[in-house]
Amino acid sequence: MKEQNELLKSLPADFFKQFKTGQEFSGFMDALFKRGVEEMLSGELDAHLGYAKHENSSGSNKRNGSKQKTIKTTKGSYTIDVPRDRESSFEPQLIPKRKRMIDHIEDVVISFYAKGMSTADISRQINELYGVEISSSTVSNITERVLIDVAEWQQRPLDSTYLVVWLDGIVFKVRQDNKIINKCIYIVAGLNTAGHKEVLGLWINEQESASFWMKALTDLRVRGIQDIIIACSDNLKGLTQAIQAIFPETVTQLCIVHQIRNSLKKVPYKNRREVAKDLKNIYEAPNEELAGQAFFGFELKWGKIYPYICTSWKNNWDSLVPFLKYPMEIRKLIYTTNIIENLNRNVRKFTKNKTMFPDDGAVIKAVYLAIQNVSRIWTNTINNWPSVASQFLILYPTRSQIIF
């Protein structure tokens, strides 16, 4: 920046007076930009060949003229002369081969895509902002590079221990074999031993199932996770068994909020408030023993009227009450899947303009970019982290390698 200011100061005072209109000055700046890019490319070739233009070289590889290439930038479209070498080994860094767009515009395209804009809307917006015409197919091609980022992110090594993980699925409509079907994106978020939340991975399948969750959990194990202390999920049949099959020491906690919603689903409005109040006595009990007594009272009162509620709580009891053995700070983290449901709501916010996706790759790109946006606010440790960390250290001294 200092050198640029010095260069501007060195210009004659009347230099800019030669331009009579804004159009003339704009034309000069376009020519200056084109010349600057070409000189930078020439400098890149000098470094590649090991000698400057018009110098002699004993090497076999030499300059071989140039070819024209139209590039698109934030200032518009330009036709640039790109120098070539005889061996075709020169790979320009400023304007890489097979690229016709300056990175800034590509970054803007990806940013718009991450915000949920359609490819057609992005094409129109880029044209309005920069005067550059790009087709919807070009937008799709630009966003394809996101899949490379997804692959790297999905294969990154993970920590050996996570204190809590939350598992949930989110359904999207996707075109497949000329039909529009529902597909589930599986998402796993975790609380690491430094007190930070992070999304561990995402997967896609035609429907949410315990068997596919087992594949996702196996993937997490391969990527380095050796121990999960507590896993929180909704009441998908077989998911608890799938978690324990891959991580046998993990405590499985079903979401209390999901259980309450399912319990009240068929309760008439006139009784709903009273039933909800009596259920609250169960999950707000100080410990499991008192929760059992509250459930016994609930069954006496409502068992004959709503037997399905009592049956559901009985069948899931062992996975509903584990949170009651923990201190309040940990209870608040695990009795519900709110953390991942909030994540899913944000994903929905970024994808709400897309009623249907053309293929699996389009869904994965959109969800990944939405997750990256949400993850930027997950930079601080969780609330009450010192207390939570101390409690995990006391409860699991050999399993939780806490980092303060």
How many strands, what sense, and barrel or not for the largest sheet?
Answer: 5 strands, mixed
Query: Which overall shape is indicated by the principal axes computed on the Cα atoms?
Result: elongated
Q: Give the strand content.
A: 15-25%
Q: Spans of 5+ residues with little confidence (pLDDT < 50)?
A: none
The assembly state of the depicted protein chains is single chain
β-strand number: 7
Q: Provide the residue-averaged pLDDT.
A: 83
- Give the SSE string: HHEEHHHEEEHEHEHHHHHHHH
Instruction: Specify the helix fraction band.
Output: 40-55%
Q: In order across it, which strands form the biggest sheet?
A: 5-4-3-6-7
Q: How many distinct folded domains?
A: 2
How would you describe the overall organization of this protein?
The chain has 404 residues and is α/β, with parallel strands linked by helices. The chain has two domains: 15-151, no CATH class; 158-395. Helix content is 50%, strand content 18%. It contains 15 helices and seven strands. It has helices at 2-10, 22-49, 103-114, 119-130, 136-154, 210-222, 239-246, 256-264, 269-283, 288-302, 307-320, 328-334, 338-351, 360-375, 385-395, and strands spanning 63-73, 76-85, 161-176, 179-192, 197-205, 227-233, 251-254. It has a five-stranded mixed β-sheet, with helices on both faces. Strands 1-2 form a two-stranded antiparallel sheet. Strand 6 (227-233), helix 7 and strand 7 form a beta-alpha-beta unit. Helix 8 (256-264) packs antiparallel against helix 11 (307-320). The longest helix is centred in the first third of the chain and has 28 residues, at 22-49. The radius of gyration is 30 Å and the shape is elongated. The two termini are 41 Å apart. The model has no long low-confidence stretch (mean pLDDT 83).
